[in-house]
Write a structure and sequence with these properties.
With about 550 residues, this protein is mainly alpha-helical. It is built from 24 helices and 17 strands. The protein has 4 domains: about 170 residues, HUPs (Rossmann fold); about 180 residues, Rossmann fold, CATH 3.40.50.620; about 55 residues, no CATH class; about 100 residues, Arc Repressor Mutant, subunit A (Orthogonal Bundle), CATH 1.10.10.350. The strands form 7 sheets. Strands 1-2-3 form a 3-stranded parallel sheet, with helices on one face. The chain has a 3-stranded antiparallel sheet with strand order 4-5-8. Strand 1, helix 3 and strand 2 form a beta-alpha-beta unit. The mean pLDDT is about 95.
């Protein structure tokens, strides 16, 4: 076989060589141990929490070593590509503080960096140049098999109980002569380019995985497709060429790619390109049905699989990132306890300390982390972050903020503090409207959680006299004294200890009277300081709510 003639027959329009291309991608000038990592998603849907997780790790490994991270869009599958998918990925990660040092940008923005294009769909002739060289060396060939012929091959292998795949004696087009290839091309037959695998059934390859250690696997014997019939590469081949040209030193990816390592190792080897280091991350898991039953978080089943879920719910960005770090590295929680105020970037992340089995994502633990982070924010920061979130996700809350910013700031202090102690009730911004509808909703209260031990008549009587006798222009201590004075003639004991000693002698205690008032104003028995709520709502609104309850009763 004259492989030079074959290469020109298949790639006559390609005039550059791989050496020419390599000169266009100079070696990066970085510190000796600097890591160059990448996030290389397909723009085929929303941003998955696992993608954020992997990018966070990749970014940390790159930047703590003095290296960089870039974004490469693997957009060669145009059938599955979602319009705006690239922008969704870029904007989602940007909202979590992850910005790439170079790489693909949003559709209307220029790319950053000199190692592009960073969209694989724009690199077609680069891949064809490297593929031409493999053909010229006799390491790749055209395959004219149709889908029907490949299906027949699978059936034959099934009947013979042979390993599945296009290899050895089953590789029908592997040994076509140059004349046969010319005839097929002249006849207009479509073809793909396949690797002529040098692998043997007995051969082994070792993946030196940074997280998992050495993994020995059978080497690849399949003549995998490297270029599809339209000249666009498969993922396997494109990533080999790109990771070399873009100077990638560490490929950090999901463990579902471990089984592909023998193919990638072989493609790097036959292309005479140095391999990057590999680290295969365990997937993010969730408990499902039983205490020890775990499964992968699913795009189809789980809303929390999408990064936008956390934005919509109002989890602070810092809380999500902080929690992801706790599941990414076993030493992070201990470090955080010793360094409560340190920036996350100060933590020395180690790939070797990532979990080997599935990393369990616990929403309760995320909420706990988030409560601590929200509790540590000052009122000004809370006001800014809640306002920004409500603008996009809670029209009612946003309206409350805009109509009376000062009042809203006062309400923050109301749910943030219990006296001088900081409360930790709020895990996400959407909790505000859910937990405090009496503060942030214009809707009338629909349910009242009155204590059944106090009759409707006694409840109504107390509220009616309260509205007639109460002076709103007082401080907190005087307010409580007035509640005692109003409730005592109605049969409510003003002294809690005295009431506990003889509860049968009273309708209730002054605490029960306060609860009646609390429920009338908020609908709930448990709220932050009632006097503060009344002052925040104002005289008119408070009386309006109490009078409405009197009418209902």
């Amino acid at each position: 076989m004259d492989y030079n003639t074959l290469a020109e027959l298949l790639f006559g329009d390609i005039t550059k060589t791989p050496e020419d291309i390599k000169k266009e991608y100079p070696k990066r000038e970085l510190p000796p141990k600097a890591a160059v990592t990448r996030f290389a998603p397909s723009p085929t849907g929303y941003m998955h929490i696992g993608g954020l997780y992997a990018t966070l790790v990749s970014s940390k490994i790159a930047h703590q070593s003095g290296g960089l991270i870039y974004l490469r869009l693997e957009d060669t599958d145009k059938k599955r590509e979602v319009k705006g998918g690239a922008d969704e990925i870029i904007n989602s990660l940007k909202s979590y503080g992850i910005e790439f040092d170079e790489g693909a940008a949003a559709d209307d923005c220029p790319e950053k960096g000199i190692y592009g294009p960073y969209r694989q769909s724009m690199r077609r002739d680069i891949y064809r140049t490297f593929a031409k060289e493999l053909v010229r060396k006799g390491l790749a060939y055209p395959c004219f098999c149709t889908a029907e012929e490949l299906d027949e091959l699978r059936k034959k292998q099934e009947s013979e109980k042979a390993d599945m795949g296009y290899y050895g004696e089953y590789a029908k087009c592997r040994n076509l002569s140059l004349e046969e290839i010319k005839a097929n091309i002249d006849a207009g037959k479509e073809y793909v380019i396949r690797l002529k695998s040098p692998g043997t059934p007995e051969g082994k390859v070792t993946c030196r995985d940074i997280i998992r250690g050495n993994i020995e696997m059978p080497e690849n014997i399949t003549d995998v497709v490297i270029l599809k019939s339209d000249g666009i590469p498969t993922y396997h081949y494109a990533h080999v060429v790109d990771d070399f040209l873009m100077g990638t030193t560490h490929v950090i990816r999901g463990d579902e790619w471990i089984s592909s390592f023998p193919i990638h190792h072989q493609l790097f080897t036959v292309s005479e390109l140095p391999m990057p280091h590999y680290a295969h991350i365990a997937p993010i898991m969730k408990l499902d049905g039983g205490e020890n039953k775990k499964r992968k978080i699913s795009k189809r089943k789980d809303p929390e699989a999408s990064v936008t879920f956390y934005s919509q719910q109002g989890f602070p960005v810092k809380a999500v990132l902080e929690y992801l770090m706790t599941i990414a590295n076993s030493g992070y929680e201990g470090w955080r306890m010793k360094n409560p105020d340190a920036n996350m970037q100060e933590f020395n992340f180690k790939l070797e300390k990532m979990p080997v089995s599935g990393a369990l994502f616990d929403m309760d633990k995320l909420s706990s982390v988030s409560k601590d982070i929200i509790a540590a924010m000052d009122e000004e920061e809370l006001f800014e972050k809640i306002s920004a979130w409500a603008e996009s996700f809670d029209e009612g809350l946003s309206g409350s903020i805009k109509s009376s910013p000062d009042k809203f700031k006062d309400s923050i202090a109301l749910w943030k503090y219990n006296g001088k102690k900081v409360r930790k009730d709020i895990a996400k911004w959407s909790d505000l409207s859910a937990m405090f509808p009496y503060l942030y909703s214009n809707d009338e209260i629909s349910e009242y959680d009155f204590d059944e031990k106090i009759s409707k008549e006694d409840t109504k009587e107390f509220l009616k006299i309260y509205t007639e006798k109460y002076n709103f222009d007082v401080d907190g201590s005087q307010w409580f004294a007035d509640v005692k004075a109003i409730s005592e003639p109605l049969g409510f004991c003003p002294d809690i200890k005295q009431y506990k000693a003889d509860p049968s002698g009273y309708k209730g205690s002054v605490a029960d009277a306060c609860t009646i008032l609390r429920v009338a104003v908020t609908g709930k028995r448990n709220t932050p300081d009632l006097f503060s709520i009344i002052k925040l709502l104002g005289t008119e609104e408070t009386l309006k709510r109490i009078n409405r309850v009197i009418e209902i009763l």
